[in-house]
User: Fold these one by one.
Assistant:
Number 1:
Amino acid sequence: MKKKLSLHMIGGRIKRDWDLYLLLLPGLLWYLVFAYKPMLGLRMAFYDYNVFRGFEGSTFVGLENFMYFLSGTDFVRTFTNTMMIALWQMLIVFPLPIFLAIMITEMRNKFISKLTQTATFLPYFISVVVVCGMTINFLSPSTGVINFMLQKLGMDPQYFMVKPEYFRGIYTTMTLWMTAGFNSIVYIAAIMGIDPQLYEAAKVDGAGKWRQITAITLPNILPIIVVMFVLNIGKMVKVGFEAILLLYRPTTYETADVIATYVYRTGISNGDYGLATAAGLFEALFALILVALANRVSKKISETALW
Amino acid sequence: MKIKKSSQLVTRNEKVFSFFMSVVGIIITILSLYPIYYVIIASVSKPFFVENGDVMFWIKGFNLESYRQAFAKDGIWLAYLNTFFYTIVGVMANMFFTATMAYALSKQRLMFRKFFTIMTVFTMWFNAGMIPLYMTFVNLKLLDTRTGIIVGFALNTYNLIILKSFFEQVPQSLEEAAFIDGASNLRIFYHIYLPLSKPALATVGMFYGVSRWNGYFWAMNLLKDDSKIPLQVLLKKLIVDQVANETEAGIITMDSLASPTTVIYAIIIIAIVPMAVAYPFVQKYFKKGATIGSVKG
């Protein structure tokens, strides 16, 4: 049992370790100013907020902003798109690095193994602006390399960027290219950590490669897969909106406009701070609930959880 | 990261499997590198060939006019300089705020340690979001200031946790010995922990460096003055907005040495080069950081 701290003791400890608290101070202040103080700003969601007049001069509207957002057509569209893009991320962008990691560790040719790892890792360093610029250029109907290839195969050039039906595929492929190598690192490290004797034993028992992967590799890295999944689920809901902001056009809003881009347009571009904050708060709470749920489920099925 | 030792027992099945994996690996390697390769060859080819789809695997009509025009773009040098400034000064601020706090949080004797730790981790799961954060910058008069960019993004919880878990692994005995000799917390931090933690500091520094170098969203929204914008914001104008309009393609003749498209490719390469140069040096740190960070969550 911990002893309860008396005021006197607290004073004594602060006196003894005053410089330790001094070290804590800058970071603590930073969190207060740039993480917790903005949370007070979430009040804006309940106001018809006017920047020039502040909270005193703005009218309190209760849940009106939420009602407006949730009942509008923008909500159906942005919510569906957010979920769809998150789903694509979960089904494609999340699992493929695991396969990539297994592949890289299974190669006996160390040179090719290293080469694959280095090559897939490289795009992670390129900024999202440049990657989006490349994507847009490659997909251009008149000068894009993708369309040249299609034409060589006898197909008509397509204006990919303005067609809503292509957006999710483009975005997912782009994200995969950028992040697969980086995301595979943690799985590679986990696979390296598996006791080699397990494989030896399996081989003696006559297990083929495929069997070794399903019976040893996958179960052994499952805890990390689960942790990564829970860690990422919040991010998936918040989907890489920086990239979407660069890629989408009014003509692709139908499939590309997510809650975060809606927040950006209504808030920072149009200055409707109350409504934008309400939509943002909805998104943040939704992500939080999903993370908590994923955490619970993973605790049940695999006894691994973040908390 | 060590590659596991190959075992004595190699069956035919394994050889076939490994061969198959290597083939897929080569295909993936090509897919990963081709986009970058294409931009390179297109940027030094004649636009006539590029825009007719004749440049696909090899350079055609080698010339560097696109690069000359790219470097002549308004503000590109200034934006480059700004990015260096934000990256260098920014990472220094990052390291100061992150290392000091991570050290304090790594100490059992810190009162309310648990509370402070939860307070930081909580922000990974829930944060105020874009608009309230933006308003915070407005209220603090940090709009259109370099200080806002440097200080406003001085800490990242993920990196804080990486450093904190590293500091926790340093043997306690070192610290106790120093205490007996009468060293203060500040001295122990500065003279014992920081030198011992160089690999971890480098890892976190790299993470911060890349995000500073590549950051565009907040720079775009917080900085209004063109003389302060970093490269990424300028790049957005030059290579994303430009194509989005899909206008003045102009007439590309056989003799043209540059076109809007090839200039964009040249700009892309100019933007990638510093990172590509740094890449071999930072790769190993990145691997370390990615592993510590995600396992310790």
Number 2:
Amino acid sequence: MKKTVQIPLGSQHISLLEPIRFKFECENEKIIGVDADVGFVHRGVELACTRSFEFKQVGYVVARVCGLCAITHSLSYTLAAEKLLGYEANDRIKYLRMLMVELDRIHSHMLCLAHTAENAGFEALFMQIMSDRELVMEVQEAISGNRVQFDYISIGGVNRDLTPELSALVHKNLTLLSEKVDMLIGLFENNWSLSLKYKGVGVLSLEDAYTYNALGPLARAAGLATDVRAETNDFPYEALGYKMILESTGDIHARNFVRLREIVNSIEMCRNIIDNLPSGEIQEKAKGKPNGEAVVRVEAPRGELFYLVRGNGQNMLERVRIKTPTFSAIPAMMEVFKGAEYADAPAILASFDPCMSCTAK
Amino acid sequence: MFRSMLEAFKNLFKPVRTHPYPAEDIVLPSGYRGLIEYGIDACIFCDKCEKVCPPGAILFYQHESGEKEYRYNPWLCIYCGECVRACPKPEEALWQSEIKQRPAVVEDGANEGWFAWEEACKKSREEYAAAKKAAKTQNKSEE
């Protein structure tokens, strides 16, 4: 008779210091069953958006949902509120918003790559990627005035303009960064310890990605062509050199490569945005009060971010619903664990880049 | 192995990437979003900054004489700059400086002191509104 052992991972773990728990059912060293639990923290952001804050202030509240993708959260809410007000931003505002979202994607992907390198036992690479990430953080700080909670996007525009000095800084830092990323691509491809540990580990097949509704880099690494940037037309992504990055193997190595190649693509897009920045106002009046219901989808670094906003013509909103990428991707994540070795679990977990700060809102 | 040892030896003479923070100050970028500063002479007490502030870090205390007193909590402020944008007299009455706020100490009363102030502001406004209403009804009855 076969014996199985239950092993919990989390809710706090060395490989992921965030409140998520996986309960593995192991047969010897192999994981045969997984149970996930994400409901450890409840911050009541959705209720606060409808009870304590007026609709103009909510953009700053939802930015506090997550420190890393603050800009994506505030952008999603602002787009939804602007739809309800019947306002459409001019091209300059759209370009500046896109620039910040792409910079956000670069630094979020670099953080995830640093963690996956750390979980392979490659501490030096972890530190190197984190210090290279400073180049993007510097740009974001210079543009928005803040390092983490950017508070850059407001209803009707953006809060700060891009000066010629800032454009030069962005160009300079992105050039330095693209050299570093090229070096990282070489390292992730050729380094013996990274490729040995990550090729063929934590595989998500294309059928499973379809069945379990995988999102973001997790899906694109399995060959599933899903990206909100290609599916919506809120922003002119196609005109600025957006390319869908697809890999086929679906393992950790493929996920790392999707992220690395997306960084390269985002750097290219940022350069295009700065070179082709249209002229115009950066702040316009969006008058009225939100009435009706709006749904907005934006591609966050980790996948699709979904916002539903309902207003009834008053200052307070009726309902704000946030569906975050990690929460939607959990069934696919659980599928990846089945059949893997227990020792690989932390590395697989880090390669998903789960964001509990977003999920436990 | 020889190559990695050579790299390690070279790294000994490279400049460090970290910043020795408390010993050396961090250079903030120009346009850093710092403290909100207030000029009482230009203020017209329209309360727009108070209404628009997302965390409620600006409050006005209503004195019985009709004057208002401005109070700002820099430890509650999120430095979004919405108040400055709402102000009808920016740069004179309310502006955002590039000064970084120091950490709060017990004497600042960043929590308890502020909660007491919030209560006091709320009470002062209610009392002022009640007193004004009472004066109005008295005037009417005298007429």
